[in-house]
Amino acid sequence: MKLKKLFKHSLLVILIISLNGCTEEFLDFFPEDKITSANFPVNEDDIKLLLDGLYGQLRENTLYDEGFFAFGVLDGATPNAFNWGNTALAQIGNGQLSATAGGIVTFRWTRSYEIIFRANYLLRVLDEVELSESSKTMYAAEARFLRGLAYATLVESYGGVPIVLGSITTEEARTIARSSADETWAQAISDYDFAIANLSAEAPQVGRATKGAAMAMKMRAYLYQGKFSEALTMANEIIALDKYSLFPSYEGLFQLAHENNQEVIFDIQYMRGENSQGTRLDQFTGTGTGSWTRGTRYVPTEDLVNAYERIDGSTGKYFESDIDLDNPYDGWDPRLKFTVVVPGSYYLGYRFPNYLYPGGAYNHPGNRIKHLSTRKYRVDNEADMPPTDQSDLNNIVIRYADILLTKAEALIETGGDVEEAVALINRIRTERDDVKISALPTGLSRDQAREKLRHERRIEFALEGLYWMDIKRWQKMDGYANRIYPVEVRDHNGSIIETKFPGGYKDYFNLLPIPNSELSLNENLEQNPGW
């Protein structure tokens, strides 16, 4: 059984396993060729193994209906992408989710508590192994950084949740109550603060947490709470590190050859292999070439494509414009070309719209959107395509562009200098070698700058999984979701195949329901309103 599969199903089950593994009472004689609580951990190598298992919990292997830090999967719950399967993630995106759904509703809860309990265990056993004080502090800081990620994910998804910082009994697990959202956020911030104080600017190993990563996630935690003054402070401190900068190629950001570049602040490491080190990204976010098993589940929508501007900064819906199929990206924001495959463009040697299944470059036959596909995260050379389910492209959790746009948004929302905010947005639009879009003009009002900022975030991070949280937090601020929904999803023939939130966006959708499996185990867990 793989280490990262030990904890499953519920908070209670996770607790029981943890308690069984942490007991101080064990037989005097135990097998020395097996890992037990009696002989593990005994040295620093064991601590590193525990830490590796903790980081391993960030990885996802299915990308089917889950979504923790999963590339574009979470965009399937937004107008950016369409999930053609009848899954919980699709239901989140179209307003049909119910409290009985599984998938992402239970996955985010379970995976977060797996991280929390593993982090708590690692923190507890640090005193049982001979370590230097500096090493002990470093391991503790990384464990708390990861625990902070878990609590932040929980509160983003469910609101306030039970806070567990150490070992608890089975009975306590059955009766523990939810803390408030403010208390849960405070716990995440506390964990990030400890990591910031005790981690170095450079990681001891590629992919591990750094001071900058902890600062960036703390900044995002403040942003998601609408605490813009605090987010601005954190953004300024990250910029002052003088460690990160925009990568000169937007296209290259999402290519294997440029992983861990100067724009990446924290990412999840993947590698090609048969032991679950890779992802199924090639399965669910790309275009098939010879078998439907290479099809896509999360496909860009016309609504996303229509949101891209022309290079001169003018707006105009792509699918309502005159497009030269021999030059389908000509005159449009270059990020469209690097993100979406559109009719007339080439991909893996095939030219769209030779897209209809079977034959040519096509999507999964179950997907009714056959004229669009994802290019971001994908290889353009079929010979470079990884074996099925073994994509080794890292998942970028947060990058420097997010720092700049967070600072711009914080300036706008705190009454700061609008011209400075616009200048930061313009850096995203003009500073890369392969993205040159007309700069936003000076003299924008605060309201105009806010709309430009929100547009820029949607386009810059398209299919990176951030738009879901942006929609929810902007809805709390000024009813943003009510202005963008309902959204029609159209197939390659122009027919409507789904309408997202046909009855309008309901505020209770800002939170997921507490999984029914958890409610059945603990009567003190209260369901979120509306579910």
Structure summarized in a few sentences:
This protein has 18 helices and ten strands. The chain has 531 residues and is mainly alpha-helical.
Written description of the protein model:
- The protein is mainly α and 531 residues long.
- The protein has a domain at 3-198 and 513-521: Serine Threonine Protein Phosphatase 5, Tetratricopeptide repeat (Alpha Horseshoe).
- 40% of the residues lie in helices and 6% in strands.
- It contains 18 helices and ten strands.
- Strands 1-3 form a two-stranded antiparallel sheet. Strands 2-8 form a two-stranded antiparallel sheet. A two-stranded antiparallel sheet has the order 4-7.
- Strand 9 (487-490) and strand 10 (496-500) form a beta hairpin.
- Helix 5 packs antiparallel against helix 7.
- The longest helix has 26 residues, at 133-158.
- The radius of gyration is 23 Å and the shape is globular.
- The protein starts with 10 loop residues before the first helix and ends in a 10-residue tail after the last helix.
- The relative contact order is 0.13.
- Residues 1-32 have low confidence and may be disordered.
Question: Major sheet, described briefly?
Answer: 2 strands, antiparallel
Strand element count: 10
Classify the beta-strand content into a percent band. 5-15%
Query: How far is the N terminus from the C terminus?
Result: 36 Å
User: Percent helix among the residues?
Assistant: 25-40%
Order of helices and strands: HHEHHHHHHHEHEHHEEEEEHHHHHEEH
